[in-house]
Specification:
By secondary structure, this protein is mainly alpha-helical. Helix content is about 40%, strand content about 5%. The chain has a two-stranded antiparallel ribbon with strand order 2-3.
Length: about 325
């Protein structure tokens, strides 16, 4: 009996990111239960995130990016938070990362309840989860017990670029033990947030030195984006990554629907819908109402990348911005 590509895709999605045996190690669900007296650590973090979200809903893409940029460099160890000379923060891809203030506020809140118990690395993944839920995503539980890393260097930052090929992207995610399905799901985080013109302007005016727009982009979208990103502009404007204005700040599957309509903003986004290795996954997710749940599971898997749990290799910082002496 011949099995269709769609059926194989569905089976892959069924097993992705619940990570039995993968999230295990020393991480545990409910890790902080009873470690802070009667206080609920995750509830403390949730209240801080909610406070910020009610004032600015764009904290969701900011925290998603913060977690991704942390986990892809030396693992999920909060190394991106450190303020040291030539830290990860100073690397080009990280100069526009936001959300540090939210992590600082959450850290202050948990330190007031139980000093020296909760790591900054755990705060990042919990705060990101809470922001996703507030943006109408699915709430997902995250295993805890990470320690904070001791090293942060700009020279370690090697993040996938917005113009990366599907082949190189697959390889980059594979190095983090993340599958092709994980990759497509995690890039679905682009269903919220913005991209600055400088990251995709070549697709509008001079794609691959042709002096023409990217032929894979919807011509109407090209014309619309040219208005937001004129060639002689001195300001690096921004546009929504999800061009469906009704869901640009909602964690849903609209991102996949837009890319299938050739309305992906970043080159890698559009490429996912066109490449034989990923297009069937994109098509499945474009019609899958369970995307928020699947995205949450992929975020759990991301949160386990190369975590530090050995006290000889990490610590629980007093301040998220400095290694404890």
């Amino acid at each position: 009996m011949k099995i269709s590509v769609e059926a194989i895709t569905f089976l892959l999605l069924l097993v992705v990111a619940n990570c039995p045996g993968f999230c295990g190690a020393a991480l545990q669900y409910g890790y902080y239960d009873g470690k802070c007296g009667v206080a609920d650590v995750e509830d403390i973090i949730r209240r801080v995130v909610t406070f910020h979200f009610l004032r600015n809903q764009t904290i969701t893409p900011a925290l998603l990016r913060l977690q991704f940029h942390d986990c892809f460099v030396r693992g999920c160890d909060a190394s991106i938070l450190l303020d040291v000379p030539n830290s990860e923060k100073t690397a080009g891809p990280n100069r526009s990362v936001r959300g540090y203030d939210i992590v600082d506020d959450a850290k202050a809140a948990v330190e007031a309840a139980c000093p020296g118990v909760v790591s900054c690395a755990d705060i990042i993944v919990a705060a990101t989860r809470d922001a996703v839920e507030l943006s109408r995503g699915e709430r997902y539980e995250v295993p805890m017990g990470r320690l904070d890393g001791l090293v942060s260097s700009a020279s370690n930052v090697d993040l996938p670029s917005p113009s990366i090929s599907v082949t190189d992207s697959i390889q980059a995610f594979s190095r983090k033990r993340l599958s092709v399905v994980d990759m497509v799901l995690l890039l679905g985080g682009h269903t919220v947030g913005i991209a600055h013109c400088s990251l995709f302007q070549n697709r509008l005016y001079n794609f691959q030195n042709t002096r023409k727009p990217d032929p894979t982009m919807d011509p109407k979208l090209v014309m619309d984006l040219m208005k937001s990103c004129p060639t002689l502009s001195t300001v690096d404007n921004a546009v929504n990554l999800d061009q469906n204005s009704n869901s640009a700040l909602v964690v849903d599957n609209s991102y996949y629907i837009e890319t299938l309509a050739r309305r992906g903003i970043l080159q890698i986004d559009q490429a996912l819908a066109l490449d034989d290795r990923t297009s069937s996954i994109v098509k499945f997710l474009a019609r899958d109402e369970n995307f928020p749940m699947r995205f949450g599971n992929a975020m759990v898997k991301l949160s386990t990348v190369d975590v530090v749990t050995d006290i000889n290799k990490g610590q629980i910082r007093k301040s998220c911005r400095a290694v404890k002496k």
